[in-house]
Amino acid sequence: MFSCHAPFERERAAKIFLDCSSGLAYNTTIKLIDFENNEFWVKAMGKPIYENATIVGIRGVFRNIHEDKLAQNKIKDSLANTESQNERLVRFANLLSHNLRSQASNLQLTVELLRGADSSEEVSELNENLDYISKNLATTITHMDKLVSIQSKASEEKKTVVFSEALEQVKHDLQNELIEAQAELFTDFSEVPSIAYIPSFIQDILTSLMSNSIKYRMHDRKLVIEIYTYRENDRTYLMVKDNGVGIDMERKANNLFNYYHDDQPFDHPCDVGLFIIKNEIEALHGNITVESTLSKGTTVKIAF
Length: 304
Known about the structure:
elongated; about 50% helix; about 25% strand; three-stranded antiparallel beta sheet; five-stranded mixed beta sheet; alpha+beta
């Protein structure tokens, strides 16, 4: 009866029909499919037909509003994209201010101490500190450049990315780390073999998540990494799961995607990696979620 409705709309259509047969009129938008299996939006309006106070049928009409709906969705997506960009710009400004101010302060203090140093040992120690600060500063600038380039890359034309091919490249890049960790990798891309996306973003996602799995593995058991793609609720998902040390979600859930944590080193890979890929994913209107249990492992899901 509801075969003319898009598959994901059929349950809702059945409820609308049931409610109307109980006396409730309807006025809604819903997706139908034509004879060539193309989906299109319609305005659906209907009401019950009464005969001697008894409902004997339903009278309704459909009006094709597909082009209007597409235009509305385009405007909605544009507004959502602008809002998302503004949020990222605010985060970026705060991030830049915090890190550069902190490192500039450390640099200024070290230079002042170096001027007053009265032993070769103290000079050597302070020079080592200068070297450490300069490396951190260079790393910060590299990360800032990466973040600045995300929005411009997000506007590039998407290309077909084959997940298995992208993973092979990442495995090659992380070959030494995977061998050292003796990691066992299970993958299944059969449900969604490929996706239209920015290729470098997929590489970043896989590299960051696999690197974290390797770094935060349990050393008393074999590291197992599982990577799958699947479809759910009309969206494509990528899942990366490991059996590593896990994350204390009660303590770190709210700060998981921050660039730095107060109790972690500035270049903690979980902070930087997750922060960057979250920005890449959100730039293309996706989202990322993390589920984790200490000593049991972590599961990361990306909805594209």
